[in-house]
Design a protein that fits this description.
Layout lengths: L1 H67 L3 H4 L3 H14 L5 E5 L5 E5 L14 H9 L3 E2 L3 E2 L5 E11 L2 E11 H9 L9 E5 L5 E4 L12 E7 L13 E11 L2 E9 L1 H5 L3 H25 L7 H14 L3 E5 L5 E4 L1 H7 L3 H4 L14 H5 L1 H7 L1 E9 L5 E12 L5 E10 L1 H48 L7 H32 L4 E2 L2 E4 H18 L3 E5 L8 E4 L1 H18 L4 E9 L2 E8 L19 H5 L9 H11 L4 E6 L3 E9 L8 E2 H6 L20
Parallel strand pairs: 19-21
Antiparallel strand pairs: 1-2, 1-6, 3-5, 4-5, 5-6, 7-8, 7-11, 9-10, 10-11, 12-13, 12-16, 14-15, 15-16, 17-25, 18-20, 21-22, 22-24, 23-24
Helix pairs in contact: 1-7, 1-13, 13-14, 14-18, 15-16, 16-18
């Protein structure tokens, strides 16, 4: 009998060996899949960076072309216009092959570098040329063979004289230069390759000589089947893993494809696999010895162990209950009675189902008992205390059997997971908030780079042109005005950044003084009158108080800045021919309004437009200049002055922005953003430290 018992013990060793092999396989597979996943994520991040670079490239060059198209010499196609086009090419010839002026009928008027063979050719048959003629909007083409004889991508921006379309200004971008600039830095292991495809699947750039034209997914993986006879040593019909990343570009999109072979990654895992085998062999030998020694210990004092188990169940922190096979309670520990508020006598003999909340579905609760009788059940559900309060628990149940395998009862161990769920929810919310903040900051930095470069290009470019000895006085005056406008725009951007920084640190000072509201309204009207007339708009204002009653104690510069931001936005986004603003006295408040008939704002977006880095273009799909700080600065100023700001809007009909300030003709002490925040009236510090109004609106 003893010999038979030891034989049974030895038979368990092969079982342990099989378990170790299985665990080794699971660990190795997990590491292998994680390595592949990390590599894919790494390539997606690199592709995303390249995507941002390509997008910024087109955004910058579209802005530069649009800037160039506004010169009268370019519009009227004079000799000076040709010189401007030549200067533009010379400054950007590392990335473009030609700059071309096309008339309203699609005929090439001029191209630089000069090519007389293409001047006068009708290219209206080209799809992108026809598209810019039809829509009068900037267009980016698919890859095509240009009239100059090379494969390229064309970007066209419309040229207007007043409101009359007079053609387009285009630049040709060689696809190989663009691909090498932004895709050449992507690191690919082993035999991997990277390609750039157009919307129609045409290869724009690729490290492989031939590849099938495919329609890739938006982002993710697929399989790329290479053609027979392809370069770089690929076998016929050799499958590779493919990572794709879509690059949105104005009216079209491109796709970055990164292909690699799994074998290149697996080769790096060979060393790890050998170490794992050695470690698992050592563990197997040690565990086999331990198991052999442990099985020699005889089980003595079974009744004593059961008694000790009962005492242990009473003292554990989790709620422990024992029921019969019909779910009638036989035993509960102290943690159970303490958690639920019942005494042990109130629970013994009752069906445990009376503790379940009605929030649980009947089907869900009814599956617990059958699953436990089959072996075990684990899951989360909601239970009810004696006082009626409900709370979530994690419950684990199993069946108790005698030595013959017959069921004696069921044991359940539960723990209150309210705190865990609360922390999980807080972590999810914090993660979402951090991701949103990171996205907005990244977008702000990209936009800020563009916003600063544009006026800098204007300043440096026209400062260079002023050096020309043959300039007329009119030309000099025009260039000086452009430099002044670009400098003012640069100053506005810097001021907005300084303002928002000082608001957040609570350093914004509110200077209270006698302020005639009517005069402020009229000053704003005078400020925007010329700008509105240039855009063909009418601007109206309404003063509801006589001048003697319109003098209050407030910060006049901040009132001016708030109205300037709101009216500037209305002019920027309005589709109508008129804008109205003014104020009314309501009880002890002055309620200001700015009304436009623009595209409107969706209801769910009305709150976020007042957060930092948001632009109207985010909500209307329009491209807009600005830092995205104007409305957040306006909101901070309103709250510093003791008022509130809100918007009412209807899609397709326009928006009305309202804000209130106290009607307070009595003297009032100076305050700062920091002291105002301490009073509880400023929910979030935001600022601007100037004593003059912000010029930019966003």
């Amino acid at each position: 009998m003893a010999k038979l018992k030891y034989s049974k013990t030895y038979l368990l060793i092969p079982i342990v060996f099989i378990v170790f092999i299985f665990i080794f396989y699971l660990v190795y597979e997990n590491i292998k899949q994680r390595t592949i996943s990390e590599f894919k994520n790494e390539q997606l991040i690199l592709a995303g960076t390249a995507s941002q670079g390509i997008g910024s490239f087109f955004k910058e060059y579209q802005s530069n072309l649009a800037f160039l198209s506004q010169f009268n010499d370019v519009i009227d196609f004079t000799g000076k216009g040709q010189a401007l086009m030549a200067s533009f090419y010379e400054n950007h010839k590392n990335f473009i092959e030609a700059v071309t002026r096309v008339d309203a009928h699609g005929v090439i008027l001029y191209t630089y570098p000069e090519n007389v063979s293409v001047v006068g050719k009708d290219i209206s048959y080209q799809k992108h040329v026809q598209q810019v003629m039809d829509t009068h909007q900037p267009v980016i083409s698919d890859v095509f063979v240009s009239e100059q004889g090379y494969r390229a991508i064309a970007m066209h921006v419309p040229v207007f004289k007043g409101r009359i379309y007079t053609g387009s200004l285009a630049m040709l971008i060689p696809v190989n230069k663009l691909g090498k600039q932004y895709l050449g830095k992507i690191r690919i292991r082993g035999t991997g390759n990277v390609c750039l495809l157009s919307e129609k699947g045409v290869k724009l750039y690729c490290t492989v000589s031939e590849a099938e034209e495919i329609n890739p997914p938006v982002n993710g993986t697929a399989a790329l089947i290479h053609r027979r006879g392809m370069a770089d040593g690929f076998n016929a019909q050799a499958k590779e893993e493919l990572i794709s990343y879509r690059v949105p570009i104005r009216n079209t999109f491109w796709t970055i494809l990164i292909a690699y072979k799994k074998a290149d990654i697996y080769s790096a895992l060979a060393r790890l696999r050998n170490w794992l085998i050695l470690i698992f062999l050592i563990l197997f030998v040690a565990s086999s010895y331990f198991f052999y020694s442990f099985t020699k210990v005889r089980d003595i004092g079974k009744d004593k162990e059961i008694t000790m188990l009962a005492h242990a169940l009473r003292s554990v922190n989790e709620c422990v209950s024992i029921t019969n096979v019909d779910d009638i309670i036989l035993f509960v520990n102290e943690a159970f009675t303490r958690t639920y508020g019942y005494t042990e006598e109130e629970l013994i003999g009752k069906n445990i189902g009376f503790l379940r909340s009605s929030e649980n579905s009947s089907a869900f609760v009814n599956e617990i008992l059958p699953a436990t009788l089959d072996g075990e059940w684990k899951g989360e559900l909601i239970n009810r205390r004696k006082d009626g309060s409900e709370f979530p628990i994690y419950l684990s149940t199993t069946i108790i059997k005698d030595k013959n395998g017959n069921p004696l009862g069921l044991i359940g161990v539960a723990s209150d997971i309210s705190e865990r769920l609360r922390k999980e929810k807080e972590l999810i919310q914090a993660k979402e908030k951090a991701e949103e903040s990171d996205r907005l900051k990244s977008k702000f930095l990209a936009n800020m780079s563009h916003e600063i470069r544009t006026p800098m290009n204007g300043i440096l470019g026209f400062a260079e042109l002023l050096k020309e000895p043959d300039l007329t006085s009119d030309d000099q005056q025009e260039y000086i005005e452009i430099i002044e406008k670009s400098g003012a725009r640069m100053l506005t951007i810097i001021n907005d950044i300084v303002d928002i920084s000082k608001i957040e640190t609570g350093q914004m000072e509110v200077v209270i003084a006698d302020t005639n509201v009517n005069e402020q309204i009229e000053s704003v009207y005078d400020f925007f009158k010329d700008e509105a007339e240039k855009k063909g708009m009418l601007i109206f204002f309404k003063n509801s108080l006589p001048s003697k009653n319109a003098v209050i104690r407030t910060d006049r510069d901040k009132i001016f800045s708030i109205l300037k931001n709101l009216i500037g936005n209305a002019i920027k986004y309005s589709l109508s021919k008129s804008i109205e603003f003014g104020y009314e006295k309501k009880d002890s408040w002055l309620e200001f309004y700015v009304k436009d008939c623009g595209v409107g704002i969706r209801h769910e977006k009305r709150e976020i437009i007042f957060t930092r880095f948001r632009q109207g273009g985010d909500l209307t799909n329009q491209f807009a200049e600005g830092t995205g700080l104007g409305l957040s600065i306006a909101k901070a100023y309103v709250e510093l002055l003791g008022g509130t700001i809100w918007v009412e809007s209807e899609i397709g009909k326009g928006s009305i922005f309202y804000f209130t300030i106290p009607y307070n003709p009595e003297p009032r002490e100076n305050i700062t953003a920091n002291s105002f925040a301490k009073s509880g009236k400023l929910t979030k510090s935001v600022s601007s430290m100037r004593k003059w109004p912000a010029a930019n609106v966003s």
